[in-house]
Every structure is written in C-alpha cells, then in structure tokens.
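Appendix B, record 7
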Amino acid sequence: MTLMTKFLGAAAALALTSGVALADPAIIYDLGGKFDKSFNEAAFNGAERWKAETGGSYKELEMQSEAQREQALRRLAEAGSNPVVMTGFAFGDVLAKVAPDFPDTKFAIIDVDWLDAPNILQVAFNEHEGSYLVGMMAALASKTGTVGFIGGMDIPLIRKFGCGYAQGVKAVNPDATVVMNMTGTTPSAWNDPVKGAELAKAQKAQGADVIYAAAGGTGIGVLQSAADEGILSIGVDSNQNHLHPGKVLTSMLKRVDNAVYEAFAAGTDLETGVVKVMGLANDGVGYAMDENNASLVTPEMAAAVDDAAGKIKSGELQVHDYMTDNTCPAASF
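Structure tokens (predicted):
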C-alpha cells in the first residue's frame, strides 16, 4: 500500500510504498526521482527485478528536497527496513550520522567509498572505464574531429566520467577536440534539461557532432537537443538508446541496477564494512548495443571498443581515474 508521510512540514511530502514484512528492504532515490531515465531509474529497475524474481516487497522513497535526507533515512530504519539502500554520494554525510544509531540495520550506499562503519556496504563504480569505451566510439563516429561532454553537477565524480571519455577519444584520434561543460555547482544541475539543451546547441556551434551527457535528468535535454540538431548523443547510467532511435550512438551503462538487486537479494545477510568496486571486469559498467543504435555502430567500431574492453579487464590497459589525483591527462575542465 502507499502511505504519504510528511517530513519537515507540509511542503515536504514523500511517497513511501511499503509491504507487510518489517524486514522488507528499502530504497531511497536521489533528487530527480525514480523515473529520471538515468541513474535513479537504473536503481528502480534493479529493485523491480528483485521483486519480480522473488515475489518480495520493498519500500521506496522519493525525496523532494535536500533537507529530507536524514529524517527520511531515520524513518525507514525505525520502520524496520533492512537493508536500506541509498542512491548517490549526497547521502554520505547523513548516513555517517544515522548508521551508528541503528547497529542492527544494514545500509548500502552507491557512489560512496569514504565511510567507516561496520553496518554499511559502500558501492563504487569504475565509471572512467565505461566512459573510455564510449569516448572511443564517439571519436570513431565523429566526422568533424570535435566531440562534447556535458556533465551535471561539477564534482570530482562527474569529472571522472569526463576524463575517462576524453582518454577514449584521444586514444582513437590524438588530434581530436573535446569540448567540456558542466551544468552547474548545485544539486539542481541534475534536473535542468533546458540548460542541457542550451549547452548541447553551444557545443554543436563549436563543431561537436557527438555529445556525451553524464548529467542525470539534465541529460534528457542534451539528448533531445542533439537529435533536433542532427548530431549524435551518448546516454548514461541506463540504456537511453531508445529515447531517440538512430540518434543516440550508445549509452554508458552504470549497472546501478545490479548493485541494488544484489543488495536486496542478500537481505539481512548483506556483507557490510567493505567497499565493493564495480567495473568492466565484473559487469559494473559497459556500453549499450541494441536495435536502436545497431545502424550507427559498424562491426569495425564494435571490434575496436571490445578489444579495448578486454585489455582494461585484463589490466593491460589502465584508464586514469580523475579522482585519484584530481587531474586529467586528456582534457581540462
């Protein structure tokens, strides 16, 4: 059943879908909502896959503002949800406060690796590896030698995407130009499709004919604008190829769905106190191929990208991770 629970006043209503069992797992989506067609929706798909396969039920919560994070997390823990999964680094500081108060509750958080608590599983992704592959594909598809990257909120994590992408581009074409833009410096940068569309048009004016969007809901505007302008785009997190068939070159898959599914499947046996890293080698990241982009990717392009993927998995090819030293050898932000 669906309960409307109000946190922090009447203006802050949260939808909480609950099952019967007290030990149901739960998920809290980051701002932008579970149907953002990107990061949160990937998490939702993982929860739904678990539900379909097990017949189980879970609680889910969509926030409306930053101020709701702590109370929302406490309410779920108090209600007996176990484990509680959070999508996004912005939950990190809040979880550090809440987790010690609920030692018998297990928590899993995506995109965080700096917490130290025995009841938290932290899940990090090698986004730079998947971004390298789609960067290669962008360079192979580009006719102008100029490609673009549009990030959401300007944080090291999103620079990690952009830096991996630029490395992949330069591996194919050392003389290529990579135009880099961020949408903003506040959480609203994740949900501004109008700004995304404006940035895409500006990058096209600079010669970009393929643009990679790593910007949550803002990316929907990037993909729409690219399609309208007659250039190619690259989606992120979820497979976004279907949004504009024949116009989205590929999507960098960040398998948040697998992370959520595995946490729900483990239930109260979830291994905590560790950081789990998901990369190419364990299907944590990748790139999307389907009927919507098959005509855009030649066998030669796919072979080149798959060869690089194999070398990354084996360790023969190392993609620089921006977050290790806050530098990028292939681009400047």
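Remarks on this record: The longest strand covers residues 146-153. Residues 156-172 form the longest helix (17 residues).
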